[in-house]
Specification:
heterodimer; A: 381 residues; alpha/beta; Rossmann fold; 8-stranded mixed beta sheet; 13 helices; 15 strands; globular; B: 198 residues; Pyruvate-ferredoxin Oxidoreductase, domain 3; 6 helices; 42% helix
Chain lengths: 381, 198
């Protein structure tokens, strides 16, 4: 039996590193349904969970998979699922349920080219707006976008920690390229890994209000079967969790769901700058396209173009303030992503006409080359 | 080319063949040898079709001393072909003066004018009793010819990557390929010095 944290140095795919990151974060339940190119996450964790006393269930479909991780989390177990585009679409309704019931869980989307069944074995980054708005109603979400197997290991831990801290589903929006890329992954000592668990209730069980925010703005979470009187529903509810069909209750609940994210943007948003200090042109990118962009920045600089990269480590919430500030001092933005303009729209919105914003996009199925980005920089600026 | 001696700089390698030959595994062993054994940087990109067996597949491996930003192989320095389809698809991408390695029973290097190295890896594997070890034989051959990774690192990575209980058999297969490669190199050296002396 191997331990949950497999300390050591490996040559590992992103999918496997994601599964190992989940175990290191304390994930002990995985409910999923196989789908290329995310199957290896499920396959690997199916073998590993029994070694650490966890549970793996292959559900009948992705709707059930998402429901199962919400249930497991309500019972007090850190839970995850993984999928790709078609499965992500099926999960949308229950992602909304997890938002509304403030249930911590992690959903991994190893993106492939769509729409619909699309290109099962070939990657894309076309689900970024679906990640933001895919479930109905207005809500805030947290989504991360790893750029390497090493990063997906740490981001999966981070995703669990954010999800437990703020009580919501956190999305890892990776792509086929990173999921299937093998690279060095160093798994540190178990003692060096920081894990966070959801706030827990104290006091009288019969007077507990399951949706009453604690001192940090997030409600402590009682687990099923502990004796607390709780009611959990996707209907608009009050602090007791009871359905209340009024405009006032809707306003209060929405303020809670949005507020816990909006008040903590500085704690949640993560970006990384590469050669940005003196950059005149800023490339904005994430996931595998950030790898393209790193190479493009170096090649552009060699050709005399002062380019830099703002890499989005978290894509949602969007780093609006950072783009607005950069818009005051640079010549313009170029967003590099394997879709036909999604995050590009956000960059353009935040640039707000102060400087031009361009897209180097692709309909999906393959990676964007650094040469294409450098050519675009020359053409645009 | 040096045996077991470290090659400096960035090297891009494509292994290609059809699904079921262990092409991706060969790429993974190579990358693992570079990263774990030789303490260098390496990336492996795997490409395959929706069908698990029989379809065209390829493993793109980059080995470098610096972090690898862009992991896709555009102009391979080394192309290893274990199917005709793989050769036909990738030969046009190979770098000028690049090294071509083929399974001589499976690939005809049609229209290729440069120097290449060939081995009957599938036939040797059959003689060893397991056709599916052709990839490991090819990997031994590759290591001897190119020196892209050290022999020790490659051998360790093979032992670490194959199913339990088959380590010795696969080690033998690796050595067979390696010896074959060293013999080919020696033969060419002899020929070259012979020519120079004439």
């Amino acid at each position: 039996m191997r331990p949950a944290v497999l300390t050591g140095e490996y040559f590992m795919t992103g999918d496997v590193a994601c599964a190992e990151g989940a175990l290191a974060a304390g994930c002990r339940f995985f409910g999923g349904y196989p789908i290329t190119p995310a199957t290896e996450v499920a396959e690997h964790i199916a073998g590993r969970l029994p070694e650490v006393g966890g549970t793996f269930i292959q559900m009948e479909d992705e709707i059930a998979a998402m429901a199962s991780i919400i249930g497991a989390s309500c019972a007090g177990v850190k839970s995850m699922t993984s999928t790709s585009g078609p499965g992500f679409s099926l999960m949308m309704e229950n992602i909304g349920l997890a938002i509304c019931t403030e249930t911590p869980c992690v959903v991994v989307n190893v993106q492939r080219a769509g729409p619909s069944t699309g290109l099962p074995t070939q990657g894309a980054q076309g689900d970024m707006m679906q990640a933001r708005w895919g479930s109905h109603g207005h809500y805030d979400i947290i989504a991360l976008a790893p750029s390497s197997p090493q990063e997906i290991f740490y981001q999966t831990i981070d995703a669990f920690n954010l999800s437990e801290t703020y009580r919501l589903p956190v999305l890892i929006m990776t792509d086929e390229m990173i999921g299937h890329l093998s690279e060095r992954v160093v798994i540190p000592d178990a003692k060096k890994i920081k894990t966070v668990s959801r706030p827990r209730p104290k006091g009288r069980k019969d007077r507990f209000k399951p949706f009453e925010p604690g001192p940090n703005g997030v409600a402590p979470m009682a687990h099923a079967g502990e004796g607390y009187h709780i009611h959990v529903t996707g209907l608009t509810h009050d602090e007791r969790g009871y359905p209340v069909m009024t405009v006032e209750a809707q306003k209060a609940m929405m303020a809670q769901l949005m507020g816990k994210i909006q008040r903590n943007l500085d704690d949640i948003i993560r970006t990384e700058a590469y050669r940005l200090e003196d950059a005149e042109v800023v490339i904005v990118s994430y996931g595998v396209s950030a790898r393209t962009s790193l190479a493009a920045v170096d090649e552009a600089r060699e050709q005399g173009i002062k380019a830099g990269l703002l890499r989005l480590v978290t894509v949602w919430p969007f780093p609006e303030a950072q783009i607005r500030n950069l818009a005051k001092k640079v010549k313009g933005f170029v967003t590099v992503e394997i879709n036909l303009g999604q995050i590009h729209l956000e960059v353009e919105r935040c640039a707000a006409g102060k400087v031009p914003s361009f897209l180097v996009g692709h309909p999906g199925g393959t990676i964007i080359t650094p040469e294409r980005v450098v050519e675009a920089l020359k053409e645009f600026f | 080319m040096a045996r077991g001696k470290r090659k400096a700089g960035r090297q891009e390698i494509i292994f290609t063949g059809f699904g079921g030959q262990g092409i991706i595994l060969a790429g993974r062993i190579l990358g693992q040898a570079a990263v774990i054994g030789d303490h260098r940087e390496s990336t492996l990109v795997q490409a395959y079709g929706p069908e698990a067996r029989g379809g065209a597949c390829s493993a793109q491996v980059t080995i470098a001393d610096q972090p690898i930003h862009y992991p896709y192989v555009r102009r391979p320095d080394v192309l290893v072909c274990m199917s005709q389809g793989g050769f036909d698809k990738f030969i046009g991408q190979m770098k000028e003066g690049g090294t071509l390695l083929i399974d001589q029973d499976l690939v005809q290097p049609r229209g290729f004018g440069g120097q290449f190295f060939s081995i009957p890896s599938t036939r040797i594997a059959e003689e060893l009793g397991r056709k599916m070890m052709a990839n490991i034989i090819m990997l031994g051959f590759f290591t001897a010819i190119t020196g892209a990774v050290s022999l020790d690192a490659a051998r360790d990575a093979v032992t670490d990557s194959v199913p339990k209980g088959t380590e010795e058999m696969n080690g033998t297969a690796f050595n067979k390929g390696c010896d074959y490669g060293l013999a080919v190199l020696k033969g060419r050296e002899k020929k070259a010095t012979g020519k120079a002396g004439a």
